[in-house]
TrEMBL record:
Protein EC: 3.1.3.21
Assigned keywords, A-Z: Hydrolase
Highest taxon of the lineage: Bacteria
GO molecular function, one term: phosphatase activity
GO cellular component: cytoplasm
This protein's name: Glycerol-1-phosphatase
InterPro entries cross-referenced by the UniProt entry: HAD-like_sf, HAD-SF_hydro_IA, HAD-SF_hydro_IIA, HAD_sf
Length: 343
């Protein structure tokens, strides 16, 4: 797969049969909806696009997530939600037989998924678990992390549902599962196997369960959502409503680059112009960008300027030219500005 932007003169809903949509930072932030998310997903469904909400959050049951989405105006069934808890339980099955003992450090969703996979959930390292699986839950404390560390140090297989260091909330960014996993890793020296994004497992399982043939990954984080899309071999749409900014996309390494760039989920029902080169400039409709002596120059604004900047920067870097990151502007576009006050 090319590591450059793709173009389409047709809306993405006409090119794909399913969208694998991240939640935090894409559909909502904490309890607050992301602007345009509900209406855009409704229009996408009306255009024939199926949805699977694929989230690295392992703390809640699919039923609970579906209820929240429905309350935000996005009618959702539990089988349209695929969590890192379910992916983590699937990872356990690759090494553990049913009936094995597993110490679960996480929320109700993770406990349910592990039991549904046929394992015995234990509460202490003294129960001699065969594995420890850790996922985020806001109620986790020192005692939970210490129990995990004791079990891992005793030889239990260490599995993490995901390694996201931060978690978007309606107040800003809080420590995510990766930060809490890091405490156990620091105490034991053992790095866990991860089931969540950017590993491709979740995306591939979501596609398998639906029988989709042309999936599109939609996310806000380059290091998880879009890196996972690259790892799975699926095209990815980066929406600028969450963690990673347009500037981050310009500076992204090849394995984290998106295929499409959009201000928000309205990008699902829009065409995506392909930046083209005209002499030294990369042009995208009325915007343009070029790299001169390692410095990025940008003309225009909005998402087209960000697209042109990505094309110019990636082309320069891929040809071996140095790019001075200090010359890359913020490139705030669309909902990235609208949602700035949401926290």
């Amino acid at each position: 797969m090319s590591a450059g932007l793709r173009g389409s003169d047709r809306p993405l809903v006409e090119l794909h049969d399913i969208a694998l949509v991240d939640l935090d930072g894409v559909v909502y932030k904490g309890h607050e909806p992301v602007p345009h998310a509900a209406s855009s997903l409704t229009r996408a469904r009306e255009g024939g696009l199926a949805l699977q909400f694929v989230t690295n959050n392992a703390s809640r049951e699919p039923e609970t997530v579906a209820e929240q989405l429905t309350s935000l105006g996005i009618a959702t069934r539990p089988d349209e939600v695929f969590t890192a808890a379910q992916a983590g339980a699937a990872l356990l099955t690759t090494r553990l037989a049913p009936g094995a003992r597993v110490l679960v450090v996480g929320g109700a969703g993770l406990h349910t998924a592990v039991r549904a996979a046929g394992y015995v959930v234990v509460e202490s390292a003294t129960d001699r678990p065969d594995a420890v699986i850790q996922g985020f839950a806001p109620t986790l404390g020192w005692a939970d992390l210490a129990e995990a560390a004791y079990a891992v140090a005793g030889g239990a297989w260490f599995v993490a549902t995901n390694l996201d260091f931060s978690l978007p909330t309606d107040r800003g960014y809080a420590p995510g599962n990766g930060a809490l996993v890091g405490a156990v890793q620091a105490a034991t020296g053992v790095r866990p196997d991860s089931a969540g994004k950017p590993e491709p497992t979740m995306y591939r399982l979501a596609v398998e369960r639906t029988g989709a043939r042309s999936p599109l990954v939609v996310g806000d984080r380059l290091d998880t959502d879009l890196a996972g899309a690259r790892a799975a071999g699926y095209p990815g749409l980066h929406v600028l409503t969450g963690v990673s900014s347009a500037r981050d996309a310009v500076l992204a390494r090849p394995g984290e680059r998106p295929d499409y760039l959009g201000a928000d989920l309205r990008a699902l029902t829009e065409a995506h112009p392909l930046p083209t080169r005209a002499e030294a400039w990369w042009a995208c409709r009325g915007a343009g960008a070029r790299v001169v002596d390692g410095a990025l120059e940008v003309r225009g604004d909005g998402v087209d300027a960000a697209r042109a900047a990505c094309a110019a920067a990636w082309d320069a870097v891929d040809r071996g030219e140095a790019l001075d990151a200090d010359t890359v502007p913020a490139l705030a576009v669309g909902s990235a500005r609208e949602g700035a006050s949401d926290g």
